[in-house]
């Protein structure tokens, strides 16, 4: 499939220097908050605030794929937009390879060179008036690459994502299928030779057979270019397949984070358990009998006090409605925000000492 | 009508759309039978014709832009040949439909209760309070909490899962015998989806409903369906009980589809087995087997004639010339 | 067919498949719409009349004759009769095309240039800038266009230039509004976000991504205003605020032929018929353009 040599694209595994070294997480998010105000009525009284993202902390290691899961209202899409600064956070720090984004060490424009995003709607992500190669070549030109070199790079990338440039480079988005458009979006994301790519439901709108092709492509590209992915999806099977670590969000907060297989095999947070057992069974002799959770995911306008999940949790006790459990991540990047796992939290199932918790 | 007789019998259905520059045959020669109280899932990707087939059962397609051929027998009546008067009695009373997006199917300016009452009163005459009582019991049956209050809610005031339940009760208002479901859980969150799937199973048991459930999600089909029919480019390529299809799929497309699904059984880092190429363009179908271009087992003979359905075992059939090559487990 | 200078180590003898561009698609679709094509032909004829009016006209538009006042249609030498000063109607209708079209099109063109800039800025900037600009525009929008045109002309005085100015001012708010609304829609699309995410500044994004998607719909809306502009201009002339006699212009001709309606009603109606035909043609043209531009995938 690839008939191009690497010299034509002038790519070293990272066009950008690795500043922090291998142990430095590529991305660290600290106390990120975004609230959206609801429209005020005539008297200026606000009808409330949507707490879309309400204080989240997590880190993404170099070369890993962090899966992000959660249902409506959990804040995962808002988080993606906050990371790319398409929506401005109300509070919080985003630290890329040890440098704070937007600071003197790392300007926003420079950050955007190193972190890119692929959106869900493959058609809306492409300017209908530009040819495919013009769309892909746009970003390099913004950063100073001259037009012909940018077009060459675009054609090269199209070939790498499996689209023959002779057939596709001068076409328009509406002439391509959904899967092909999404490949274009991936090529576009790669045009600046980034280190981090955020995929916001990037395969969700594709047919299953096409989805499999695009997932394989993502894995190939990750190896070839040494990329780090943040993979947001509602499809738990896909997340399990592609992620190294997984982060579960609920009502604007992170409730659990940890190694992918461990989280899927033995989830600790009651919400994670409920979510994972909601995946339809593929075994006709072993169908699901009881829904693990009743009711709909609540909306983040007036979240419950204390632990946000306590209103739907089978293990809830009175302490859960008054105390908000904090997410504490250990050295392996594993953590759960539940009072049942916090030493002496007041919950009957809580461990009594550090040794018991281990 | 004896119990053995199929409640739904679709015979050689073809649907051609004539609105565009050239006619597009979205569905070709589909045969499908559904018994009373049975749930059949129609699985397929874009261009498979599954939604078109479903909508034809209620004749929802614009008659000036579409042509239906064949027979759709529901309870002995042929839907294709019905007059418009019979058709409006048929819709809602014998068969009704639920859709993917309830916000689009429910009228935003009336409360859900009003819409259900209107639906009831269209087919039966009773007083409004009797109709309301029936609406209330429907809400209870679909497990909507505080049903009395929710009858007076507007669609936009309800959450997604509740709207879907409201739509189901609207579909059941006149006690139909056949429920058609067009991707009803695709737009729902995982925890809500499983609730609705279990609800449908429960309703099937309690009411003896026949259900035809269209989806692209194999997992949802397995949870809900007794039998599964796989569609590709307007034809059914394999059909059998859920167990048979999941344990021993025989058509290359079904097998490839199962292999390409990302489940936990695939170890990390291994690439998924993919079906090369892309879903078919229904306006330009090749002669012969439509799947041949993407099939690893395709021979020249496959490209020349459209294969007939071969019965592998009672109730299990596949449309393929190479079935002798597909009897190992996936 | 394209020859590009490529590294020979890459693909040899490249022939890139080109697809028909957007505007080619639009013109193809337009050509298939018979009504729109007919309207376009009518407009071309009108333009021809405007440009070659003086050569086409059988008589001098200003040649008056007391003896030949208000002669009916079919009068020898004057096929469409004469007006209240004995001037040949056919001549004045033909020669009047130039000024009438000019009064109709020019304000819209000017308003398009000014209004779209205002609207695009407001639409892209959003927030406080948007509010400031659009609420100011709304003040003008609150006046019915006819009254506004009359009021402005009254302030500025009669005459062609002044009425052009007042009509331009009348049309800037609606064009600005449409521009703002289309720009806001485009701005929320993912591809604009993707462009922002690549680090481009606002100006580049507007130039590369927004303009190409926005100017089309605004242009179509503007063409639908030409008919309105013609009628308003005729109205101003009718009221004595626009073109001054003896210039041939359809609105003015309607005014001066007013009293002739009892004597020669057909003749008195003729300038109105010309206005009618022109307005309909422009409306149909803009409808056809709008339909042709709705390209679905």
What does this structure look like?
The complex is a heterotrimer of chains A (358), B (330) and C (297). Chain A is 28% helix and 18% strand. Chain A has 358 residues and is of the alpha/beta class. Chain A has a 7-stranded mixed β-sheet with strand order 6-7-8-3-9-10-11, sandwiched between helices. A 4-stranded antiparallel β-sheet of chain A has the order 2-1-4-5, covered by helices on one side. In chain A, β4 and β5 form a beta hairpin. In chain A, α3 (132-142) crosses α4, α3 (132-142) packs parallel to α6 and α6 packs parallel to α7 (208-225). Chain A starts with 26 loop residues before the first strand and ends with a helix. In chain B, 33% of the residues lie in helices and 22% in strands. Chain B has helices at residues 50-57, 84-93, 102-105, 112-123, 128-141, 147-150, 160-171, 190-207, 218-224, 242-247, 252-260, 300-304; strands at 8-17, 24-34, 39-43, 66-74, 77-78, 95-98, 178-182, 210-215, 227-232, 235-241, 310-313, 316-318. In chain B, a hairpin with a 2-residue loop joins β4 and β5 (77-78). Chain C is mainly alpha-helical and 297 residues long. Chain C has helices spanning 22-31, 34-56, 89-125, 127-141, 145-156, 160-187, 190-197, 202-238, 250-256, 265-293. In chain C, α2 packs across α3, α5 (145-156) packs across α6 (160-187) and α9 (250-256) packs antiparallel against α10 (265-293). Chain C is elongated and about 80 Å long. Chains in contact: A-B, A-C. The interface between A and C is large, with 45 and 32 residues.
Q: List segments of chain A where confidence is low: pLDDT < 50 over at least 5 consecutive residues.
A: 1-14
Largest interface: A-B, 49 and 43 residues
| Individual helix count of chain A | 11
Ranges of chain C where pLDDT stays below 50 over 5 or more residues in a row are 1-13
Tell me the β content of chain A: 15-25%
**What structural class do you assign from the helix and strand content of chain A?**
alpha/beta
Instruction: Report the strand count of chain A.
Output: 11
Instruction: Give the ordered list of helices and strands of chain C.
Output: HHHHHHHHHH
The CATH architecture of chain C would be: Orthogonal Bundle
- The shape of chain A is globular
Distance between the termini of chain A: 49 Å
Calculate the mean pLDDT score of chain C and round it.
84
Number of domains of chain C: 1
Radius of gyration of chain A: 22 Å
The averaged pLDDT of chain A comes out at 87
CATH class of chain C: Mainly Alpha
Please trace the helix and strand order of chain A, writing H or E for each element.
EEEHEEHEHHHHEHEHEEHHEH
CATH-defined fold name of chain C: MetI-like fold
Query: Beta-strand level of the residues of chain C, as a percent range?
Result: under 5%
Number of strands of chain C: 0
Under CATH, the homologous superfamily of chain C reads MetI-like
């Amino acid at each position: 499939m690839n008939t191009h040599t690497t010299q034509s694209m002038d790519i070293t595994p990272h066009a950008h220097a690795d500043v922090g070294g291998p142990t430095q997480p590529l991305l660290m998010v600290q106390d990120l908050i975004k609230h959206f105000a609801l429209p005020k009525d005539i008297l200026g009284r606000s009808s409330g605030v949507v707490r879309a993202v309400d204080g989240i902390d997590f880190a993404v290691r170099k070369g890993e794929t962090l899966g992000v899961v959660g249902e409506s209202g959990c804040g995962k899409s808002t988080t993606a937009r906050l990371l790319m600064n398409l929506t401005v956070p109300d509070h919080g720090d985003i630290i890329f390879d040890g440098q704070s984004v937007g600071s003197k060490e790392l300007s926003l424009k420079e950050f955007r060179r190193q972190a890119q995003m692929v959106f869900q709607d493959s058609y809306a992500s492409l300017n209908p008036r530009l040819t495919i190669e013009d769309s892909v070549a746009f970003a390099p030109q913004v950063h100073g690459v001259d037009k012909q070199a940018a077009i060459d790079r675009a054609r090269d990338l199209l070939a790498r994502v499996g689209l023959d440039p002779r057939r596709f480079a001068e076409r328009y988005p509406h002439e391509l299928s959904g899967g092909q458009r999404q490949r274009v979006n991936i090529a576009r994301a790669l045009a600046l030779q980034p280190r981090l790519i955020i995929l916001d439901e990037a395969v969700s709108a594709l047919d299953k057979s096409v989805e499999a092709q695009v997932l394989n492509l993502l894995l190939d590209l990750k190896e070839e270019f040494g990329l780090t992915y943040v993979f947001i999806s509602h499809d738990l099977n896909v997340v399990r397949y592609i992620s190294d670590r997984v982060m579960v969000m609920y009502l604007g907060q992170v409730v659990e984070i940890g190694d992918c297989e461990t989280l899927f095999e033995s989830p600790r947070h009651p919400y994670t358990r409920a979510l994972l057992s909601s995946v339809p069974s593929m075994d006709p002799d072993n169908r699901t009998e009881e829904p693990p959770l009743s009711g709909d995911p609540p909306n983040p306008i007036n979240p419950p006090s204390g632990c946000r999940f306590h209103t739907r949790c089978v293990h809830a006790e009175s302490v859960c409605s008054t105390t908000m459990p904090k997410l504490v991540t250990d050295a392996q990047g594993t953590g759960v925000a539940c009072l049942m796992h916090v030493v002496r939290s007041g919950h009957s199932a809580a461990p009594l000492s550090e040794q018991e918790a281990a | 009508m004896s119990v053995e007789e199929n409640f739904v019998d679709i015979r050689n259905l073809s649907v051609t759309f004539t609105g565009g520059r050239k006619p597009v045959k979205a569905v070709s020669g589909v045969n499908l039978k559904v018994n009373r109280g049975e749930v059949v899932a129609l699985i397929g990707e874009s261009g498979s014709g599954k939604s078109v087939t479903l909508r034809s059962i209620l004749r929802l397609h614009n008659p000036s832009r579409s042509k239906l051929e064949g027979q759709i027998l529901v309870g002995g009546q042929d839907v294709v040949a019905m007059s418009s008067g019979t058709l409006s009695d048929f819709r809602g009373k014998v068969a009704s439909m639920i859709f993917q997006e309830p916000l689009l199917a429910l009228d935003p300016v009336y409360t859900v209760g009003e819409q259900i009452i209107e639906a009831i009163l269209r087919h039966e005459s009773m007083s409004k309070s009797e109709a309301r009582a029936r609406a209330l019991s429907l809400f209870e049956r679909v497990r909507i909490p505080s049903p009395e209050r929710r009858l007076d809610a507007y669609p936009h005031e309800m959450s997604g899962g509740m709207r879907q339940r409201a739509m189901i009760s609207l579909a059941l208002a006149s006690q139909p015998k056949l429920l058609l479901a067009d991707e009803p859980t695709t737009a729902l969150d995982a925890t809500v989806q499983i609730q609705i799937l279990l609800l449908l199973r429960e309703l099937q048991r309690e009411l003896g409903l026949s259900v035809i459930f269209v989806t692209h999600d194999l997992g949802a089909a397995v949870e809900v369906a007794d039998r599964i029919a796989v569609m590709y480019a307007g034809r059914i390529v394999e059909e059998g009980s859920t167990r048979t299809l999941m344990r021993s799929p025989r058509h290359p497309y079904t097998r490839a589809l199962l292999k390409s699904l990302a489940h936990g059984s695939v170890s990390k880092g291994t690439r998924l087995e993919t079906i090369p190429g892309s879903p078919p363009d229904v306006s330009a179908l090749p002669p012969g087997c439509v799947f041949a271009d993407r099939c690893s087992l395709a021979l020249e003979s496959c490209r020349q004639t459209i294969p007939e359905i071969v019965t592998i075992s009672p109730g299990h059939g596949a449309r393929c010339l190479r079935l002798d090559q597909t009897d190992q487990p996936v | 067919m394209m020859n590009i200078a490529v590294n020979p180590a890459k693909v040899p003898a490249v022939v890139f498949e080109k697809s028909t561009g957007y505007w080619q698609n639009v013109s193809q679709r337009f050509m298939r719409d018979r009504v729109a094509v007919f309207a376009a032909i009518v407009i071309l004829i009108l333009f021809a009349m405007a440009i070659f009016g003086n050569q086409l006209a059988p008589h001098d538009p200003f040649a008056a004759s007391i003896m030949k006042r208000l002669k009916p249609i079919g009068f020898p030498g004057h096929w469409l009769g004469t007006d209240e000063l004995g001037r040949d109607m056919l001549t004045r209708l033909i020669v009047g095309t130039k000024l009438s079209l000019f009064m109709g099109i020019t304000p819209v063109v000017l308003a398009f240039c000014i209004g779209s800039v205002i609207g695009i800025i407001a639409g892209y900037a959003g927030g406080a800038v948007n509010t400031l600009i659009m609420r100011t525009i709304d003040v003008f929008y609150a006046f019915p266009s006819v009254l506004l045109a009359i009021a402005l002309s009254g302030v500025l005085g009669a005459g062609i230039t002044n009425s052009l100015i007042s009509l331009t001012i009348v049309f800037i708010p609606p064009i600005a509004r449409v521009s703002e609304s289309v720009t806001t829609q485009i701005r929320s699309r993912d591809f604009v976000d993707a462009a922002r995410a690549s680090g481009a500044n606002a100006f580049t994004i507007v130039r590369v991504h927004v303009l190409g998607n926005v100017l089309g719909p605004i242009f179509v809306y503007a063409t639908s205003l030409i008919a309105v502009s013609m009628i308003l201009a005729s109205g101003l002339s009718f009221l004595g605020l626009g073109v001054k006699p003896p210039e041939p212009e359809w609105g003015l001709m309607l005014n001066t032929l007013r009293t002739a309606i009892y004597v020669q009603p057909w003749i008195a109606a003729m300038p109105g018929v010309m206005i009618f035909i022109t307005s309909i043609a422009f409306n149909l043209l803009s409808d056809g353009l709008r339909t042709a531009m709705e390209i679905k995938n």
